[in-house]
Amino acid sequence: MIASSRGQRSATPGEAPTVAVRPIESSVAVGAEDVIATRTDAGPHREIRAGETIATGDTPVRLVLISDRTRIDLSAGTSARFARERQGVRVHLEHGGLSAEVMPRTADRPFVVETPHANASVVGTAFSVAVTGHSTVSVGHGVVDVASGGASARLSAGDVAACARGEAPRVARRVDRVLEELADPGGWNNCSLDLPLVSGVGGLVGGRSLQIHLSSERSWAGAIFAQRQDFSPYRGLSLTCRGQGTGALLLVEVLDNGPPRQPGEKDQAERFFADLVDDVAGWREVRIPFTAFKRRELQMPGAANDGLTLTGTQGLSILTSRDTTLSLERIGLYK
After folding, report:
1. β-sheet bridge partners, residue 276
2. Which tens digits make up the pLDDT trace of 67-91?
3. Is there a contact between 224 and 267 (Cβ–Cβ < 8 Å)?
4. What is the reported pTM?
5. Which of 232, 233, 252, 320 is deepest in the core (most CB within 10 A)?
6. Are the C-beta atoms of 313 and 256 separated by less than 8 Å?
7. Rounded CA gap, 86 and 88, in Å?
């Protein structure tokens, strides 16, 4: 979906008029060669012409491009202007939402969606974009090139990019497994006393986030899984997070193997850690390969000592060397 927070505005002299989508003839007097798409969702088909702005009102609208039968769905409350782009199409999204199943394109037949923050050039894919304070592009399958702030990124299936005005795209790549239990404060069941955990709105992959306020005075956030997990098929850990750019050193800890913990008992898992530096203010994805994890000198009494096997992972922890706030939106595993 593509969505925008801009409000509707009246056309000024020289601009294309805003036309509410309904089964009537267009007021734009142009030739049939300027017809870009037809409405197919309900009622008589209506031709959509180059330069025309579509306002959907309270009802979603489905369009099909004349050139190659690419399907475009406009959500309710959407305003989008359609224009020619060489032998292809450019959609200027003012506000609302758009999703599309785009047929494969060549360089001379582009499909481009322009938002206030970014351009998404589609090679041939199913994709969506959400525009609030920034634009977020998500790819279902295929390839999308995203440009923002003078930089660009190529997205493949499962990738997400967040684009703010004047900034390069921030990309979160596809993960093979999301640790869903860690998206909820209740999943973090092994934290230091009185550790603040605040649920909020995510900023990169479109989910909920969990804000953790950590201090250097023996403060940590920890999660013990209800059942031990097999992480051995995966190459590493992915954290989609928002830092403060404080320079604080965070330790990401994996609790590996050991006997299952009984209620009220301390675990005997073997602890391994990797460094994460809070050197970026804002959202980003951090990938930590499991080969980067080292065995901690400090271990619980009775902990195993058989190396990082990942076949019986008991949980995860995050610790810090100085006060900082970290927001987590997605924790996943990649191959």
Report:
1. 250
2. 888 899 988 888 899 998 888 899 9
3. yes
4. 0.77
5. 320
6. yes
7. 5
